[in-house]
Amino acid sequence: MFYSIRGKLILKDRSFAVIEAGGVGYACNLSAVTLSSLGAAGCEETLFTYLFVREGDISLYGFYTLDELNCFKMLISVSGVGPKAALAILSVTNSRDFILAVASGDTKAFTKVKGIGAKIAQRIVIELKDKVLKEKMSEVGMDDFAVPLAASESVSEAVSALVSLGYSQSEAVTVIAGLPPEFTAGEMIKHSLKKLAVR
Q: How does pLDDT run across 66-89, given as a tens digit for each residue?
């Protein structure tokens, strides 16, 4: 129903902002990422919006980028993930890292969010992984990650080794994405550890 809203920012709170457009103040629930992207009160701002309607609740959610809005829509499509949980997840990760975490099966990226347990984190990965790999990687300029995520045996072995050394699945996939695909698992691990050591 509402695609976006543009107007004067009249209030910023811990989890929402009010934008005045056409003489009406619209309270938009926001992630911490979007909230930190907004200017000071009095600035003109544009937010992409999502109107959530259910019995006893009509709430407007605002997003600084279309990518974040799309991630929100994907999250609330997962059984057991409501809009508040989706905002909590998007408050601790940007849309690019969210997509990479889903695509690489990094459930730990979600369990660190308050209120997201292991079962919900697994459900997010299971229900969204195929969609992310097929549709979203190219949309956010992550084609380079599609090859390692499609996973040859060497890549899978190297990712598993890095994870066992304490790196997250997302970190492992990110660093391996930049390596030549003809490397053996051993070469991938060796070069990845060098790259990770200088971060």
A: 999 999 999 999 999 999 999 999
